Amino acid sequence: MPGLLLGDEFPNFEADTTIGRIKFHDFLGSSWGILFSHPKDFTPVCTTELACAARISDEFKKRGVKMIALSIDSVEDHRNWSKDVMAFNSGAEGALPFPIIADDKRELSVQLGMLDPDEKDKDGMPLTARCVFVIGPDKKLKLSILYPATTGRNFDELLRVIDSLQLTAQKKVATPVDWKPGDKVMVIPSLSDAEAAALFPNGVTTKEVPSGKKYLRFTQP
Predict the structure, then answer these.
(1) pLDDT at 2 over 70
(2) Is 104 an annotated catalytic residue?
(3) Does 107 have pLDDT greater than 50?
(4) Which stretch of DSSP H or E encloses residue 178?
(5) Which of 69, 93, 192, 198 is deepest in the core (most CB within 10 A)?
């Protein structure tokens, strides 16, 4: 993302949303946060994504993650679109369980590097790409993923990476390929064997490899 790198403090922007005007850091409080952008209201892929996000919002809440979406239309359009989103969920009633930022002037999209130059609206203006930002309680960017407007996101994967981020923020471990909660994790290379043995009472196992180097160390967190 241009101008926004992992570890940077996330901008404390102010914006109008479907729950009123917010200051982003105040909205997050001491929670983790996820901000996901959408190209445009009343579009097919975006509607399926928001519907999925609404359906599994309790999973984010369980992890202490505040959700907020962004699209380049007005608050009024967002509110009307939200009804379609909830109806897509097998006619579910009630309000969307998270706010949507109104970025109709594209100011925030430009600031955060969200625009997709290859996807344009009927007026030739670039649409917002499908960005995902995960922000930690310290207000720093922990993860960013950028999808083109034509590819919908996998929200199960977003939950998986949040589980990894929260685990590795607390313990000196890393999560290997396709890791899921409950699987073994890897001891980070900066820990000595003695330090690892003291930190992980469940024990550490080392995978033998032809190089003879003892870097593939696994444990149960």
Answers:
(1) no
(2) no
(3) yes
(4) none
(5) 69
H or E, element range at 128: strand 126-128
Residue type, 169: A
Of the candidates 127, 65, 43, the residue with the CA atom closest to the CA atom of residue 53: 65
Is a pLDDT exceeding 60 seen at residue 1? no
Asked whether the beta carbons of 66 and 52 are under 8 A apart, the reply is: no
State if pTM tops 0.85: yes
121 band by pLDDT with thresholds 50, 70 and 90? low
Q: What is the DSSP letter of 24?
A: H
43 Cβ contact partners less than 8 Å away, ≥ 6 residues apart: none
Give CA torsion, residues 103, 88, 147, 132, to 10 deg. Answer: 60
- Is 46 an active-site residue? yes
Residue type at 28?
A: L
Catalytic residue among 8, 84, 118, 138: 138
